[in-house]
Write a structure and sequence with these properties.
By secondary structure, this protein is an alpha/beta fold. It is built from 14 helices and 13 strands. Strand 12 (298-301), helix 11 (305-310) and strand 13 (317-318) form a beta-alpha-beta unit.
Length: 392
């Protein structure tokens, strides 16, 4: 195996946001190979660029793959970190993996808890200390690392979440391709689960429909596979019943599938308004919001950390809380005012040009070039049986 860089994360056909991110980041950085983090219900087959798979809960796999990478001429190992995709308590197996690597590590943090448990704190700091470079996707995440974890800001790179290069087009010109009406479309997309807050938007729809009887809300995406395994479609059923109870069932459309990149681009360009009603105020990144900005959408959001940063300076509208009443105010204003939608959407679109994947890929290549000159460290034999000890 002889790629310049190796990317470790979940990977398609696994259906999750980090899998999509890993694929897109790797594709934007040139020659690469993939190590797929493989959950118990993971896919049987992966694309050819997946050279290794690590079964999440099989500790020996982490050491086996690390040895293979050490023996290759791969220059940098890029790790995607979110606690749930790695094995062990609080995903501590990532520390075993990093400790066993002789190659420079660049870690991208997809989650930085505002109030970490002791285990989460230990794992995150261990990963940062074991990495040649650490990447976060927002200034707020970098600030959080400094304030809560005591991390030196000089060792953290801020690189935005990558987005596709979409054209700025009139939404009504795209809706016929989806069989949708030429009326104000509000859109949310992503894997569905209780942490998304979609019930707040449905709760706002009676006021929206009163303002414009033609307006409708589309919830695009499959139920999160972990939630589906535990609870089935209970959450989606709850949302459906809420829409029926409020008398807006005809104005709420569920598109229950995991869409391809090209279909997602079509839905994004067809939408007039995009909303992320997430209830967690400390969320440090949202790929869905970043994608909507790349399509030039008028974005409405609850005030989680990433949205506040991304939508400042008139690039969108942030409501004071996640209540239906609070969301109804900007949504009704936007369905009535096409000019305001266009104004917000253009500002978001222009800001997102620095986030398109070629730009983000170039930023990562610069980081890889910087750390790729680091001399590999020797791996001591006892590290393979150590319990998650990271490099110092």
């Amino acid at each position: 195996m002889s790629p310049a860089n190796v990317f470790v994360g979940t990977y398609p056909p696994r259906r999750c946001g980090i899998a999509t991110f890993t694929r897109d980041l790797a594709g934007a950085t040139g020659d690469h190979a993939i190590v797929a983090l493989h959950p118990p219900d993971g896919p049987d087959l992966y694309p050819l660029e997946v050279r290794h798979r690590i079964r999440r809960d099989v500790r020996a796999d982490y050491f086996r793959v690390a040895r293979s990478l050490n023996q290759s001429d791969a220059r940098v190992v890029s790790i995607q970190h979110e606690y749930g995709i790695w094995g062990g308590d609080d995903g501590e197996s990532v520390l075993d993996f990093v400790a066993a690597l002789a190659k420079p590590v660049v870690s991208t943090l997809h989650t930085v808890p505002h109030s970490p448990s002791p285990g989460q704190r230990r794992v995150l700091l261990g990963l940062i200390h074991g990495s040649a470079a650490t990447v976060v996707m927002s200034r707020s995440a970098a600030s959080l690392l400094r304030r809560v974890y005591g991390v030196d800001p000089n060792i953290v790179d801020v690189v935005p979440h990558g987005v596709p290069h979409l054209q700025l087009v009139a939404p009504d010109s795209v809706k016929p391709r989806l069989g949708m009406e030429a009326a104000p479309m509000i859109l949310s997309f992503g894997l569905i689960g209780p942490g998304k807050g979609y019930e707040s938007v449905i709760g706002a729809m009676p006021a929206v429909v009163e303002a414009d009887p033609t307006a409708y809300y589309v919830i695009l995406g499959a139920t999160h596979p972990e939630l589906l395994r535990r609870e089935g479609e209970a959450y989606r059923t709850k949302l459906t019943r809420l829409a029926e109870t409020l008398g807006v069932a005809d104005h709420v459309l569920f598109v229950d599938r995991f869409v391809t990149r090209s279909e997602l681009a079509t839905w994004l360009t067809a939408a007039d308004i995009f909303v992320t009603p997430y209830p967690n105020p400390d969320q440090i990144v949202s790929g869905t919001l970043a994608y909507a900005m790349s399509a030039g959408k008028a974005c409405v959001s609850t005030p989680y950390a990433y949205a506040v940063e991304m939508l400042e300076a008139g690039r969108g509208m942030v409501v004071a809380s996640g209540s239906p009443e609070a969301l109804a105010v900007p949504l009704t204003q936007l369905v009535r005012d096409r000019d305001l939608r266009n104004q917000l959407g253009r500002r978001a679109y222009e800001f997102s040009r620095m986030m398109i994947w070629p730009e983000v890929g170039a930023r990562y290549r610069h980081i890889f070039d910087r750390v790729g000159t680091f001399q590999a460290r020797p791996i001591e034999a006892h590290e393979e049986v150590g319990a998650g000890r990271a490099r110092s």
